[in-house]
Design a protein that fits this description.
alpha+beta, BirA Bifunctional Protein, domain 2, 3 domains, 4-stranded antiparallel beta sheet, two-stranded antiparallel sheet, 6 strands, about 55% helix, elongated, disordered C terminus
Length: about 600
């Protein structure tokens, strides 16, 4: 797991005080603890203390961090010793006071001006004082020599601190100085409100901020933020690594489903049938598709067991899991430079590890559902005929049961397809024009409809499309959407269909037997798909495709379907007579169990 750079987790000390009239605080003055009161600040004595020539740092305004680094490298001195050379007592420039209005900029202000400002404060105002002291190791590693850097960091973070505590950060003013007379450079700050800007709840009256403390949490965040600002180079490097690692992980996650579905997993030899059935049964009965929704510990254990078995037996799944783990490790191996970065990395790693586990377990659940469905279909092939009869993979019934010629039952499927289309009871005199109610149409909609009609018609002529493929085309969706909007017969059908579906759903919801309920929802889902295909079939039957690839005897022509219906019905009856089976009973059984 990631580790922080070998330095204490938080290398900033910030001693904060809020002082009101008749209040006192304890400070270290000349190495001794001394009690000072409100008057010490208001009178300006605090400014004199900060601006002492043997303590405060002064620098010309044209000295920036780069220039100071250059001077430092030539000086041959240690970092703290180098900062001591900027003591005010060594400067001949009297304009360099060492006092800065840090809420504004790093330019020196006159001591008298600062004192006058403090003396003009209202007696009701509180004054805020802080000693900001980064550890010498932090100053040394980042060569925090420039007064401009100190002012930049403290200006930004003091305003943030004030805002978090209910003060208007734009109405704060303050002075500071940097003391370099010790082995630990530190800053003294005094700040206050410029005008009454605080209002209590349900009151519009503005008043001076009257709280005598800032919560510890906001002070701690101030220390964290200032340390991060000082460590900005390390932070930038950390952020670059984090963004890179997260980007690689998210690219992998975006393609997760596509890639994992490519794995060719054969689980039948793993002898996990009972575990698979347990997971599938629980998920079916509780309408669960994701691991996070499972509360049964026994089912969770089964999922973990199946996952481990797949991982052990299938190298492709094992490699997939290993690659996912490598992306997670790239995050955990990033070097954190402070406690907050360490926590951030830990939180990300924990979250992504859980996400990985959930994604893989979700895949296991879906695999169980698919396998369980397959086992059930082998026992009762009738359960799957409706969901497959439009697809390219027509069921070979001779492989499902030992009855000869049972493949003729496929005729029954075509029979039902014609029945669905007939029940729509939609008739049109010609191709497009009669789909339109001329007094209600939108010309742009009509234009889009005709374009979609032409495109789909051309696609049928030039491509080998199954009905399954045609239903999913944008053109068919556009046509059906248009009909639902402008064709009365379509609207009537959809109204009746919705009523029927709602009634069906109501019946399912009242079922108490979990098998019956799960079968009901499966039937409902398949029926919705079948109706959508039936709607498409109506459209296709109206397409004039003479001269094209699809002749009047193509599978989308209604006349052809009606003729086929009679042949199929006759074939089905003759087939069942061979086995002394009542055809009507069989059809009733199929409808009851699968329709």
């Amino acid at each position: 797991m990631n580790k922080a750079i070998k330095r204490d987790s938080l290398d900033v000390i910030a001693m904060f005080h809020s002082i009101g009239k008749n209040e006192k605080i304890t400070i270290k003055k000349h190495g001794l603890e001394t009690k000072v009161g409100y008057h010490w600040f208001r009178s300006g004595q605090a400014i004199d203390y900060i601006a002492r020539a043997d303590a405060v740092l002064v620098q010309p305004n044209n000295f920036n961090q780069d220039k100071l680094n250059h001077i430092f490298l030539k000086s041959g001195k240690e970092e703290i010793e180098f900062m001591n050379t900027f003591l005010k007592k060594y400067s001949k420039d009297e304009k360099l006071t060492g006092i800065y209005e840090f809420t504004k900029d790093a330019n020196d202000v006159s001591i008298e001006e600062a004192k006058r400002t403090l003396q003009s404060l209202d007696d009701k105002q509180r004054i805020y004082s802080m000693v900001f002291s980064p550890k010498s190791s932090l100053v040394i590693e980042n060569r925090l020599f420039s007064k401009k850097e100190w002012v930049r960091i403290l200006q930004k973070e003091i305003k943030t601190l004030c805002a978090k505590n209910g003060l208007d950060q734009n109405k704060i003013k303050g002075y500071m100085g940097i003391h370099v007379n010790t082995k630990t450079p530190h800053a003294h700050l005094i700040f206050f409100e410029t005008e009454p800007a605080f209002s209590k709840k349900n009151s519009k009256e503005k008043m001076w901020f009257d709280r005598n403390y800032f919560p510890y949490k906001t002070i701690f965040e101030f220390k964290e933020n200032t340390q991060r600002e000082i460590d900005h180079k390390l932070y930038k490097e950390y952020q670059t690594m984090l963004v890179k690692s997260k980007g690689s992980l998210y690219d992998f996650k975006r393609n997760f489903k596509q890639n994992i579905n490519k794995l060719n997993l054969n689980l039948e030899h793993l002898k996990l049938q009972s575990e698979i059935e347990k997971v599938a049964l629980h998920c079916y009965s509780n309408k669960i598709k994701t691991f996070n929704r499972i509360t049964d510990d026994d089912v969770k254990k089964s999922i973990v067991k199946i996952h481990n078995a797949i991982k052990k037996d299938h190298s492709s799944y094992r490699d997939f899991d290993w690659r996912y783990e490598q992306f997670l490790n790239s995050i955990s191996n990033i070097q954190a430079y402070d406690k907050r970065a360490l926590k951030e990395l830990g939180d990300i790693f924990e979250k992504e590890t859980k996400d990985k586990q959930t994604k893989l377990y979700n895949f296991v659940i879906q695999t169980c559902l698919n396998l369980d469905r397959k086992y059930k279909m082998e026992k009762s092939p009738y359960q799957r005929y409706l969901s497959n009869f439009y697809t390219e993979n027509r069921i070979d019934w001779t492989k499902e049961l030992d009855l000869p010629k049972l493949k003729d039952l496929n005729s029954f499927l075509q029979y039902k397809k014609v029945e669905i289309v007939e029940k729509l009871e939609i008739s049109f005199k010609s191709e497009i024009d009669d789909f339109v109610q001329h007094n209600q149409i939108d010309l742009e909609d009509l234009k889009s409809f005709k374009v979609s009609w032409a495109k789909l018609k051309n696609k049928i002529k030039t491509e080998k499309c199954s009905l399954n493929q045609i239903v999913k085309t944008n053109e068919m969706n556009e046509i059906l959407s248009y009909l639902s909007k402008y064709n009365t017969e379509f609207q009537i059908f959809e109204t009746k269909y919705d009523e029927m579906l709602n009634a069906f759903n109501e019946k399912i919801s009242k079922l108490t037997d979990y098998k019956a309920k799960s079968n009901g929802y499966q039937i409902q889902s398949e029926f919705v798909e079948d109706i959508q295909k039936a709607k498409a079939l109506v459209v296709l039957s109206k397409m004039n495709s003479k001269g094209g690839k699809y002749s009047s005897t193509n599978e989308y022509n209604m006349n052809f379907l009606w003729k086929e219906k009679y042949k199929q019905t006759k074939a089905i009856r003759e087939f069942y007579k061979q086995f002394d089976i009542d055809m009507e009973d069989v059809i009733d059984y199929v409808i009851e169990n699968s329709w």
